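Good day; I would like, with your permission, to put a structural problem before you. The record follows directly beneath this note:
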Amino acid sequence: MDILLIAGLWLDGSAWDDVVAALRSLGHRPVPLTLPGQGDGSTSATLDDQVATVLAAVDAASGKPVVVGHSAACSLAWLAADARPDKISEVVLVGGFPASDGKPYADFFELRDGVMPFPGWAPFEGPDSADLDEEARRAFDAAAIPVPGDVATGVVRLTDERRFDVPVMVICPEFSPAQAKEWIDAGDVPELARVKHLDFVDIDSGHWPMHTRPAELARLLAAAATA
C-alpha cells in the first residue's frame, strides 16, 4: 500500500529515510513528501501550497493511501482527509493533533525576516528530546529548514464533515495514549473528538521517532496500512 509521509516543521522528505527503507522491506510503498518551502528552496510558499502538494500525492497514489502527518503536519494530513475523504484509507498522526477550522497552522515561534527558524532546543527540553544525543541534535540543527511565514501563520480551513468517517490512528511518542485521550475528552482536540474510528498506539521515543525509532515506527505504520 502507498503510505504518504509528511514531516513536521523544519524537515524535508529526507527525515523519513530510515522509515522508508524499513517500510519497503515490509512490502509497502512509502512516499516521503518534500513540501513547498521546506526543502525546495522557496521562502514564499503558503499553507495552501503545502496542502496542494499533499493532495497531489493523494491523487497520484495507487488505491487509497495511508496519510501520515508528524507534529504540525498532523494538520496537513487532516486537511487531506477533509479534501479527499473518499480517497484515503486512514490518517496516522505522529506526535501531534490537527488544528481546528479557523486556527493558525503553526504560529508557535517567532518569525524572522519572513520565516520561522528552528528556535533551538530550549523549547523542547524534556520528553520531546530526551532520546536525542548531542550528535543527533547537531545534525538536526544543521539540516533544519526555516518555515515560510505564510505557512506557519496560514489559517486551517475544514469544510467536509465526511472527514470524521476516515479512520485515525494517533501514535503517541513523548506523551501517552492515556494523556492523549484525556486531552481529547477535555475538549482540547475538538477535531478528534468527532472521529468515528479512533485508535491510539504508544511508541517509546521523543518527538522525532523517525530519527530515534525508525524501525518501530515503520512497523506501526505498516500495521495501520494492513488494517
Summary: The radius of gyration is 16 Å.
